[in-house]
Specification:
With 176 residues, this protein is α+β, with helices and mostly antiparallel strands. The chain is globular, with a radius of gyration of 19 Å. It starts with a helix and ends in an 8-residue tail after the last helix.
Amino acid sequence: MNDEQRDIGKEQPAAAPSVPGDLVKRVSEAISDPERARDLRVALWVEGGAPSERFELSFEATGSGEARARLNDEVKGRGETSRTVELTQSDFSELLRALDVRQLLRAADRSHPIPPDSVIGRLELSDGEQRISTVFMADPEQAKDAGYELPRAVAEAVDRIYELAARELDEKDVRP
């Protein structure tokens, strides 16, 4: 095999991979200029619980103005509801302001043992190239029993998402 054959299919990267600092900068720019938020995506998935006591919530919002929310809560007897709506630039900017990206990075680096049948949440921020994702115990009572405390920055961002999801799903509250 010659050098040319060995190099077939190998492509050089177009650019250096982005680093978390790039995402911090992109979020900051998007807050002050909503047009720069188009590639940003904020998502929250919360699910878990014992069989017949399942809780599932998903919420995803993009800087292009689309938001999707879905809820299925067997504990409170709420059947599955889902909606896709238009999210205003000001709502998305407010959501970005609620995200402390540096604290989200720190929270993503921490881990805590999670007991079986717990309701688990995952908060994710992405710009299409870089992604920050943190996993946490989403049910306050379960978290308290396990000695788990949600980092304040994550709690504030999750609370803002719960508010948006509740509004979009016409629910008073969507917390587990």
